Amino acid sequence: MNISIGMKAPDFTAMTTFGPIKLSGYKGHWVILFSHPGDFTPVCTTEFIAFAQANDQFEALNAKLIGLSIDSNPSHLAWVNQIYLLTGIQIPFPIIADRMADVANLYGMIAPDAAKQETVRNVIFIDPDQIIRAILIYPLTNGRNICEIIRLLTALETTDRSSVVTPANWEPGSPAMVPPPRTYDQLLERVNDPGAENLNCMDWFWCYKDKPC
């Protein structure tokens, strides 16, 4: 199945390391659904440790993490236990055991030209209304930057909250931007009195909002 930004996230029920879950049960929260190629692999292990260490940051943003691979639930359990024994870090979020690749195929997480038996490193951002808002895909060989996932989630929440857009290299706390005017009257209003909207404009189409809500 091909998924895309703006579509309703396909619902599913799945067995996880925390027991059975249903995606629709997470309505009202952001969901970061991410796949990994396999348990007991070095890059995936570092990613899961990084996600675990950042879990409180995701929780503060009203976001729930859900991992997934086509490994079995016993394999997931043995792996997370081994991570704990080696590092003292517990994995505080569920990992879906997707042995038949039902969820992986539903979300396009298996790249046929990359590997037939492994999920690539997908990250699906699902908003509280269960709409897909962003999709990141990394190859098997390269781990994800968790700080970038948090940055993008924060940017999406800022956009929703304040009706703004975020420029290149935006970081939380930096000025956001406003979309360009849609009509000529709106253009004139912005040119004549940008201060009315708390804007700092380079030109009529290029304006920053210093203090988004």
Automatic annotation (TrEMBL):
Q: Does the keyword Disulfide bond apply?
A: yes
Q: What is the lineage of its organism?
A: Bacteria, Bacillati, Bacillota, Clostridia, Lachnospirales
Record localization: Cytoplasm
Quaternary structure and interacting proteins, as annotated: Homodecamer. Pentamer of dimers that assemble into a ring structure.
Descriptive protein name: Peroxiredoxin
Additional detail: The active site is a conserved redox-active cysteine residue, the peroxidatic cysteine (C(P)), which makes the nucleophilic attack on the peroxide substrate. The peroxide oxidizes the C(P)-SH to cysteine sulfenic acid (C(P)-SOH), which then reacts with another cysteine residue, the resolving cysteine (C(R)), to form a disulfide bridge. The disulfide is subsequently reduced by an appropriate electron donor to complete the catalytic cycle.
The residues covered by the Thioredoxin domain are 3-158
Q: Which reaction does it catalyse?
A: a hydroperoxide + [thioredoxin]-dithiol = an alcohol + [thioredoxin]-disulfide + H2O
Q: Which organism is it from?
A: Lacrimispora amygdalina
What Gene3D superfamilies has UniProt attached to this entry?
Answer: Antioxidant, Horf6, Chain A, domain2, Glutaredoxin
Q: Which PROSITE patterns match?
A: THIOREDOXIN_2 (PS51352)
Q: Which domain of life is it from?
A: Bacteria
